Amino acid sequence: MPTPFPALLNRLDPQDVFGSVQRFARQGRQAVADLRTLKFPKLRGKVDAIVLAGMGGSALGAHIIQTACSQELRVPLVIVNDYTLPAWVGRRTLVILASYSGTTEETLTAWPHAKKSGAKIAVIAAGGNLGRIARSNKLPAYIFNPIENPSKQPRLGLGYAVFGLLGMLRKMGLLDITPNAIEEALEVASRTVRRTDLRSGTSPIVKLTASLKGRAVYVVAAEHLVGAAHAMSNQLNETAKTVATYFAIPELNHHLMEGLGNPKQNVRRTTFLFLQSSLYSPRIQKRFRLTAEVVQKNGAKVLPVRLTSRTRLSQAIEALVLGGALTLGLGLRYHVNPAEIWWVNYFKNKLGK
Known about the structure:
- By secondary structure, this protein is α/β, with parallel strands linked by helices.
- It folds into two domains: 38-177, Rossmann fold (3-Layer(aba) Sandwich); 192-333, Glucose-6-phosphate isomerase like protein, domain 1 (Rossmann fold, 3-Layer(aba) Sandwich).
- The protein has 14 helices and nine strands.
- It has a five-stranded parallel beta sheet with strand order 2-1-3-4-5, with helices on both faces. A four-stranded parallel beta sheet has the order 7-6-8-9, sandwiched between helices.
- The longest helix has 22 residues, at 312-333.
């Protein structure tokens, strides 16, 4: 019989990743409360695009908003995971520099590019060098105190990233979202936290993690859930220390299905985690059913996860919270410390020499 999750948490989670997962809704509520006291310029009609420059967990919030709020964004939102900004960035562009730590090398390097371009610039960070840049240059910013993220891991502070960015863009007039819609998403987050609590024997995470252990994972989503699928795959990599990536339907149908031919032994050890939603368009619903059929015919496993909230944003938040618990639970099944990122730190140390 496997070791119960409460015992594994006591033994393997000294940095309290579990506490960070449980506090997602509290992170979001803190961000909403913080933003009430902050002023941001009104930019509707003054910018033609938003560019968010960030890496890893610091950019995931933007991807969630980009897909879940695609109908509410007033201008395109482009995510840059690199050192430099596109050449078209200029005076009618809003550049948001995002770094949880405030020390991300790529984001700090993008700062002079943004300044030189004449773009309008804002910052979201927990402090660090980026926080100092925001203060010394009097940039509009959300500099948050991550008191609800005891693990101190950026990927586990997504409540700040998502709801902080939602609030900033709303105040700037670039996102048409109501306070009621944000409150509903926060309520869904609270309910999902309770439902997926790893200390409970009735948590759906118990079965899901048992099904995923020992397998590579492809997270599959469409439309409003693609950003959440990206976040889940990142957390599978970092928290569960497992091979995972994400794919979007319908793009997946144009290439990946042919890639299931070889190597057979790898395909048979792969699980496709399908994020399903009744809010998907009818053609996407049909594509999900047919994709599952093709995947199973090729010997891979299909594991459906149905999101049941009422709105596109709340379903993305539901998936995000479920993903936090799922990836923590899978890491515990592998008997690893879920907070540690040995190879990322090794790489950064070597890169800095």
